[in-house]
Predict the 3D structure of the following.
Amino acid sequence: MPDKIEHRSNVVCPRCKHVIAVGHNNAKHYVLALCVTALILLAVACSFSFISFASNGQARTINLLQTFTELYAQGYIFVSLLVFLFILLLPLLYLLSLSYIILSTRYRLGFLPVIGLGKVISHILPWSMAEVFLIGVLVALIKIISMADIFLQASFWAYVLFAPLFTHIVFIVDNHRLWRWVDDAK
């Protein structure tokens, strides 16, 4: 792998022609700005109402955090834990760890080991399923739309923006770039 990848140029595998890395100008600043934006969107998604339903004179509003507590209250403890981990906690840990690594390259923060955070990012990334949750919600909405009046709230739209933004961040931060930043932060 080259030490420096030019802006908008790709590094491809010589055998299978798969894109390994893509060059970006000021990649650290760009990714850090995206991480902060994604964290703000995730905070908004957890703070306000997600979806409101109205049917037969009854109305119900649910927020994102109630998705876990409702599953827990209905006896689906393991499912509620998995949903909480996969759609909220692991993406949050990924974004916070990545932001810390990037900030450590500039400010030499020393209270957390960056190598450990790099390993954490590598292990939790396959389990972060924010976009899968969004697709599941959209499929469920298509099925429910004929049975009730549905009102999409601010939290829903924040999560709709968060999921593709999170996917974009994951796409930009390949393993080579991540471990180069970890080396810079040591």
Q: What stands out?
A: Helices lie at 27-47, 64-73, 77-107, 114-124, 130-144, 154-172, 175-185. Residues 77-107 form the longest helix (31 residues). The chain has one domain: 10-185.
